[in-house]
């Protein structure tokens, strides 16, 4: 199977970890249910990046929901793309929005939202949300299921 934008898919082939999000290749595959409105969800509970100031690791729980049109994001390439942030220095807001926009630009779905639920840095948790616009009225949108950070209280 080939990706119409980049050639052969990474799926089913040995791959190496991309050194950065810019080097990572996101693959897309045709949506076999393109005539149906539905929500697809990816959850990445162990997303990691680096603080651009201190170089210390930051951790997040990402939830990506989208209503596909003609394309689906291929999950192996998504996993490699998300893992490429492990040595990438950027603020929480930048990481979260960059992931959402990159997927949206590749797929051009009916709708996409991303929730970045970041663990505390300096004692303050930062949650970041981005969506491409209003969701289609005909789809059921489940809650993202990530409770707000409560610490020990």
Automatic annotation (TrEMBL):
It is an enzyme of class 1 (oxidoreductase). Its EC number is 1.7.1.13. It is found in: Cytoplasm. Pathway: tRNA modification; tRNA-queuosine biosynthesis. Substrate binds at residues 73-75, 92-93. It holds the Pfam family QueF. It catalyses: 7-aminomethyl-7-carbaguanine + 2 NADP(+) = 7-cyano-7-carbaguanine + 2 NADPH + 3 H(+). One of its GO terms (biological process) is tRNA queuosine(34) biosynthetic process. The keyword Oxidoreductase applies. GO terms for molecular function: preQ1 synthase activity. The keyword Oxidoreductase applies. Keywords: Cytoplasm, NADP, Oxidoreductase, Queuosine biosynthesis. Catalyzes the NADPH-dependent reduction of 7-cyano-7-deazaguanine (preQ0) to 7-aminomethyl-7-deazaguanine (preQ1). HAMAP family: QueF_type1. NCBIfam families: QueF-II. PANTHER family: NADPH-DEPENDENT 7-CYANO-7-DEAZAGUANINE REDUCTASE. Belongs to the GTP cyclohydrolase I family. QueF type 1 subfamily. This is NADPH-dependent 7-cyano-7-deazaguanine reductase. It comes from Starkeya nomas. The gene is queF.
């Amino acid at each position: 199977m080939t990706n119409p934008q980049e050639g052969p898919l990474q799926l089913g082939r040995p791959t190496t970890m991309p050194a950065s999000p810019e080097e990572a290749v996101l693959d897309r595959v045709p949506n076999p249910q393109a005539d149906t409105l539905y929500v697809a969800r990816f959850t990445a509970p162990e997303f990691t990046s680096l603080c651009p100031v201190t170089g210390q690791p930051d951790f997040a729980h990402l939830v990506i929901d989208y209503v596909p049109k003609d394309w689906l994001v291929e999950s192996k390439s998504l996993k490699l793309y998300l893992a490429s942030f492990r040595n990438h220095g950027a603020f929480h807001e930048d990481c979260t929005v960059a992931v959402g926009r990159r997927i949206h630009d590749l797929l051009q779905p009916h709708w996409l939202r991303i929730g970045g639920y970041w663990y505390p840095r300096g004692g303050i948790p930062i949650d970041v949300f981005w969506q491409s616009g209003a969701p289609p009225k005909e789809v059921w949108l489940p809650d993202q299921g990530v409770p707000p950070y409560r610490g020990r209280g």
